[in-house]
Design a protein that fits this description.
Length: 146
């Protein structure tokens, strides 16, 4: 599967991002990652904001490549995460971990299952690593967005 294939089946749409768009979303991702470390809130909320950072990083990766997910089709979180291997060359093992976190988020959101502290920590680690990776990728491949 390529980004062009996803465009053809309307999972992605073309999108021209501006530097300000990228910077604003990165700043939001950083704020969310910081909020994930606030222990005065529930594990579920800490997980939510760490996961939000992951999604914002995945969106930055798509935007920097000229695409965004189609919000008119279901599965845009899954698409954003699974395209990280195509957008920034993220390894398959990490994509699988991020997709498992997406599934955990869905279970929590729709079934109310609690989030274990170890899952919160894993989500925070993954969010931090992805945020650093996307910043590095932008410096190397899209310095016009830095």
């Amino acid at each position: 599967m390529t980004l062009k294939n996803l465009l053809a089946i309307q999972s992605l749409v073309e999108f021209v991002a501006q530097r300000e768009d990228i910077q604003r979303l990165l700043a939001a991702a950083e704020r969310n990652l910081q909020d994930a470390s606030v222990t005065a809130i529930s594990e579920e909320n800490r997980f939510d904001v760490a996961y939000k950072c992951v999604m914002q990083c995945a969106m930055v990766a798509l935007w920097a490549n000229g695409y965004r997910t189609s919000t008119s089709k279901p599965g845009h979180h899954q698409t954003a995460i699974q395209t990280l291997s195509l957008t920034i060359g993220l390894d398959a093992k990490t994509v699988i971990i991020l997709d498992q976190l997406r599934k955990q988020r869905n279970i929590n959101d729709y079934d109310g299952d609690p989030i274990a502290p170890s899952v919160v920590e894993e989500c925070q680690r993954q969010a931090q690593a992805l945020l650093e990776l996307i910043k590095s990728w932008l410096r190397d491949h899209r310095p016009d967005f830095c």
